[in-house]
């Protein structure tokens, strides 16, 4: 068993449960309770509780026939999600650099959180006035072009669950009326890209498009952000079309061409 941490904030039972999970993952195939208990030097009754808790949470799978444990669906889903995000970032990066040079504005890449989008990459323009987002930041889905681009193409039930979450007011222009948000999302689905005008950050504009995985699911979104004064309507429309083309290329390389749009 690993040395006990000197950090007073570490919850030791959680740490031990994670060690159990790590051991099962490293084992590579089904492993018995007694083997886990012996290798980690944890009493069998305690080990059993850890294994059953991890199984209930979906991180492990318990084969009742053999009474052995293996990796569960939740852990595999997390691994797939991490691999998917890494692949999207790798495929999108060259296109993001190209878009930044083409429009001389910041280009963002984000994925869906719980009612939010999380920035996983950005390429900043070399200009004095730039947007405030940073990698790792999370912003509401309903107030960002990135979020609207994802929301518009989510399965209906999932979209409604996202919109049922509390709607945060980021600026005086943030949309909070459900009916108006859903009207905008229908428009986004028709034209293939989303826009937001000062709804997430005062004085800023953003144009966003979805990126689809092999199942046709909006796994990420790509956007160009700029101060409103540098993004007139004609340039925003051009950016939307260009973003849509770039996202279609990334989606195709992920295995799923984006849905046909009318715009």
Automatic annotation (TrEMBL):
Residue ranges constituting the HTH iclR-type domain according to the UniProt record: 11-73
Record keywords, A-Z: DNA-binding, Transcription, Transcription regulation
Keyword Transcription set for record: yes
IclR-ED domain sequence ranges: 74-256
Protein name listed in UniProt: IclR family transcriptional regulator
């Amino acid at each position: 068993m690993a040395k006990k941490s000197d950090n007073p904030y570490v919850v030791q039972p959680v740490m031990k449960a994670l060690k159990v999970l790590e051991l099962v993952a490293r084992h590579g195939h089904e492993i018995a309770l007694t083997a886990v208990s012996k290798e980690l030097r944890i009493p069998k009754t305690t080990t059993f509780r850890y294994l059953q808790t991890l199984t209930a949470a979906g991180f492990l799978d318990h084969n009742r026939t053999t009474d052995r444990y293996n990796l569960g669906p939740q852990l595999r889903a997390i691994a797939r999600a991490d691999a998917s995000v890494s692949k999207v970032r790798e495929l999108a990066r060259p296109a993001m650099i190209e878009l930044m040079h083409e429009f001389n504005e910041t280009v963002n890449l984000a994925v869906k959180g719980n009612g939010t989008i999380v920035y996983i990459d950005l390429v900043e323009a070399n200009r004095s006035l730039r947007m405030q987002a940073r990698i790792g930041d999370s912003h509401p889905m309903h107030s960002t072009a990135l979020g609207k681009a994802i929301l518009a193409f989510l399965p209906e039930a999932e979209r409604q669950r996202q919109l049922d979450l509390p709607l945060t007011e980021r600026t005086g222009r943030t949309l909070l009326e459900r009916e108006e948000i859903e009207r905008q999302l229908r428009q986004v689905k028709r034209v293939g890209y989303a826009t937001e005008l000062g709804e997430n950050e005062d004085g800023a504009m953003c144009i966003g498009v979805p990126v689809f995985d092999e199942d046709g699911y909006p796994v990420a979104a790509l956007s160009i952000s700029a101060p409103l004064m540098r993004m007139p309507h004609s340039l925003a429309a051009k950016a939307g079309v260009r973003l849509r083309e770039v996202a279609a290329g990334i989606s195709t390389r992920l295995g799923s061409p984006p849905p046909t749009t009318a715009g």
